[in-house]
UniProtKB/TrEMBL annotation:
Source species taxonomy: Eukaryota, Metazoa, Porifera, Demospongiae, Heteroscleromorpha
Positions of transmembrane segments: none
One MF annotation (Gene Ontology) recorded for this entry: 3-demethoxyubiquinol 3-hydroxylase activity
Gene Ontology BP term (one): ubiquinone biosynthetic process
The protein's name: 5-demethoxyubiquinone hydroxylase, mitochondrial
Domain of life: Eukaryota
Pfam families: COQ7 (PF03232)
InterPro entries: Ubq_synth_Coq7
GO CC annotations, alphabetized: mitochondrial inner membrane; nucleus
Length: 55
């Protein structure tokens, strides 16, 4: 993989993990609909990965 692309992907991943951690620190899991939204996001991510592997 191209080094520039690898760095961009790593940066994006790190920012998303930080975003998740901040949300959990602020008790996001207690918000109405959190579980449902979490499952929708997970399914969307799995689908995006599946599609990208086939391109």
């Amino acid at each position: 993989m191209d080094n520039k692309l690898s760095k961009a992907i790593s940066k994006c991943r790190d920012e998303e993990l930080e975003h998740r951690d901040v949300g959990l620190e602020q008790n996001a899991q207690l918000a109405p609909g959190y579980e449902a939204m979490s499952e929708v996001i997970k399914a969307g991510c799995r689908t995006a990965i599946w599609i990208s592997e086939r391109l």
